[in-house]
Each structure stands twice: as C-alpha cells, then as structure tokens.
Amino acid sequence: MPVGTLGTVKGMLPETLEQVGAQIILANTYHLYLRPGHDLVREIGGLHRFMNWDRPILTDSGGFQVFSLGDLRKITEEGVHFQSHLDGSRHFLTPELSIDIQQALGADILMAFDECIPYPSSKAYVADSSDMSARWAQRSKQAHDREDGSALFGIVQGGMFPDLREKSAADLLEIGFDGYALGGLSVGEGAEVMYEVMDYTLPLLPDDQPRYVMGVGTPENLVEGVGRGVDMFDCVMPTRNARNGLLFTTFGKIGIKQARYLRDDGPIDPECSCYVCSNYCRAYLRHLYRSNEVLASVLNTHHNLHYYLNLMQEMRTAIEAGRFSDFRGEFYRKRQ
Ligand SMILES: [Zn+2]
Fold first, then answer.
1. d(CA 237, CA 335)
2. Other CB atoms within 10 A of residue 300 CB
C-alpha cells in the first residue's frame, strides 16, 4: 500500500497511482483528524470522494502517530491524551473515537486502536501494554459499525517475546477480526529480529485471512515477509526516498544526485517498464533533482512506486506458478 498520509500520495495523481498498479492505499487517521478534520471529510462525502480515489483505502488507527509524540501524550486505560503537533491543542483519542474517525473517513479497512510499543521495552511493560491493546481491540470491535461493509483488522503486539506474541494473537483471535496485522515491527530491532518475530507469529494467524505487517519495509523485507506468508505491507519508503533522490532498482538502490550520473543517458532501471524509465534518462533526473524541480519528486515517486508494486506483482505471479523460491534466488542474485 502506498502511503497517502494527508489524503494524497505525495506527487501522484490518483489515475497515475492506478497506472503503477496500486490496488489500495493507506491514509493516516491522526493527520486527517487534526486537519482538515474527519467531520469535514464526512460532510464532503468521505475520503474517496474528497481525494478522488475509488479503489480501497485502509486507515491506520492513529495510535502510531500519537505514541510518536513522546512527552506530548499520556496513556490511560480509557485512551490517550495528546497535544497536536500542529498547534498544541489538547485531544483525547480512545478506541471508540479512532473507529468513529475511520468510519467518517469512509475507510474500507479499519485498524483497531493499539499502543505501538517502543523498542526496546521491558517484558513487563510489553505484557501490560499488549493486554491493554487487547482490551482496546475489543472496544474497537464493539464500536465498529459493519453496515457499510467495511472490514476491521486486529493488531498483534507482544514485542520481541514469542510467548507474548502468542498471547496477543490468541486474545485477538478470540475477539475475531477480518484480518490480522503484526504491529511493533520496524522500530529499530533490525531485520533478523523482525524475521524471527514473523517466523513465530505468522503461523499463529489464519492463512485464509489477510496478514499484514505494518510499516515495512525495504524490497528485501517484502520478499522475506512474503516468503513467510505476509499478504500486505505499507511503507513510506518508496515515496519518501523518491523525494530525497533515492531510487530502487532491480540491481539495488541508487542516489540520483551522484556525479556519476551526470552524462548517463540510460534509464533508472534497465529492467523497469514504467513511464519514467521508458522516457527519461538518469542525467535528466539528476538535473531535475539538483535543480529542486517539482517534476523530480513526481517522476522519482512514479518510478519507486512502480518498482515496489511490480515487485509485489512478480511475487504474486511466482507464488501462483509455484516458483517463489526461484524468484527469491533471482531477486538476490541480481542485487549483488
Ligand atoms: Zn521505472
């Protein structure tokens, strides 16, 4: 899922998003709640109409952003008190309010409200927090009105502790959700620890329902996740990196501002079939980037999203053909 934090995937027209193969995008509850406000979005007909996107939208619960506020927030059993990063105004986010905001936005997939546990944290803290998130998940489910046909996903917590992940997964399965996410990953634990958590947590979740790893990741993380049974990801990496001139290719990452691309008349990625690689050379993209042209962000984002979404498409095709491990081997061989 490309990330459209403020109701736009930065630099991309909705029709261009469809062209690069986006089936669903993610929007951020916290940001849209503060500005322009969920009531305004509801009044105008929901986020699909507001941003002119008619494919599915998944909204996060707002928890991740609120917990990132550090000293500006205080957690209680009832919910989280926080101050806006925009104007310092005071707010109180509860599971019920989070679901109400997500429903006002008109999300197709809503996420249960949870605490994103900092890393590292003590086992006692992780245990208490995960139990509270399970109670919040129950309240999220009760607040969710299913009449609009939307889905609600639960989020497995438990930090980097196998027994706590197991308990969190069991708690959520007992409540029952339409899909299950792994939260609290990509928080500085390193790829190997993240893969270990996937290894012991994913088999606990139903394989006939979507399994979603939140906030991940690099192309390698996606390949490793899919190999372990992950169906969905979201990450700002392709879009944010694009705006910083960092481009993903079949052969690894490139920094387009480097002098070595001054006279390079080849495409970003010779194996990429996107609009940018079909029409523009590295020398031009380097020039645009160094000149701070708006088009640099537009073209770089287009390519990076095409790269990511094409990677997912290639993995789907390989799985259907029963040759995922060949695909994985080829993926790494080309990156060396
Ligand atoms: Zn391309």
1. 18
2. 26
Instruction: Count other Cβ atoms within 10 Å, centred on residue 235.
Output: 22
Rounded to the nearest whole angstrom, what is the distance from the C-alpha of residue 304 to the centroid of ligand 1?
A: 7
Answer yes or no: 60 catalytic. Answer: yes
Cα of 300 vs centre of ligand 1, distance in Å, is: 8
80 beta partners: 75, 93
Q: Is 162 exposed, middle or buried (0-12, 13-18, 19+ CB in 10 A)?
A: middle
The reported pLDDT for the residue numbered 11 is 97
Write out pLDDT tens, residues 120-162: 999 999 999 999 999 999 999 999 988 999 999 999 999 999 9
194 burial class (0-12, 13-18, 19+ CB within 10 angstroms)? buried
Q: Which of 39, 60, 145, 326 is catalytic?
A: 60
d(CA 56, CA 99): 17
Q: Residue 65: pLDDT above 90?
A: no
Q: Is 0.70 surpassed by the pTM of this model?
A: yes
Please tell me the predicted confidence (pLDDT) of residue 66: 87
pLDDT at 99 over 90: yes
Q: Which of 195, 196, 199 is nearest to 216 (CA)?
A: 195
| Distance (Å) from CA 301 to ligand 1 centroid | 10
Among the listed residues 257, 255, 279, 282, the one whose alpha carbon sits nearest the alpha carbon of residue 268: 282
